[in-house]
Automatic annotation (TrEMBL):
Keywords: Hydrolase
UniProt name for this protein: UPF0173 metal-dependent hydrolase I5M19_10805
Gene Ontology MF terms: hydrolase activity
Limits of the Metallo-beta-lactamase domain: 7-189
Gene3D superfamilies: Ribonuclease Z/Hydroxyacylglutathione hydrolase-like
UniProt keyword Hydrolase present: yes
Family designation: Belongs to the UPF0173 family.
Amino acid sequence: MKVTYYGQSTIEIETDGKKLLFDPFISPNELAKHIDVNSLKPDYILVSHGHGDHVADLLTVQKNSGAKVICIAEIAGWLGKQGVDNAHGMNIGGGFNFDFGRVKMVNAIHSSTMPDGSPAGNPAGFVIYAEGKKVYFAGDTALTYDMKLLEDEHLDWAFLPIGDNYTMGPDDAIKASAFINCKNIIGIHYDSFPVIKIDKEETAEKFKNAGLNLKLPAIGESLDL
């Protein structure tokens, strides 16, 4: 299983010959200007919620790739109005088996509206079960006791927001790591805007002191999970 980071909360997981792209926000992100959004051809696009910094390139990438979009039911309905009929709507607590593995939709504490003002249902996170691994993508969320529901999942990796202001900051993300019982963390949702810029060295030290393995890959960098 390989993951590539494209900035903000945009990641791509390659597993079992399939590519899963999460929360595509590339073309408006100055930090990701060296990434050609038109080169991305995922098999699936997973959307955690409707904010612009998570869906800005959703329609472009879906049109270019024909990818199936996995999202909350309300976003699937919105996509239908945009002419996208290849969407799989889900809701919190539900799971579904796809050809690459299983996806479970879990709770996130945030807000969610589409860029055009349409309602986008509840924000969500995902747990991916593939290649014998369990990977948690938290999406945009505050620290919540609901994360303790993942404690017994024995997660291999977790993608947690660490930018503060709109989501958890580093300190709450460290608490979240304990709630979900996962020591391998990849930080997301930071540095793209001034209010979510972090001190990477200080953050890395905090995670290290907590006994956690934090990865902050460069935009465009790939890691093996």
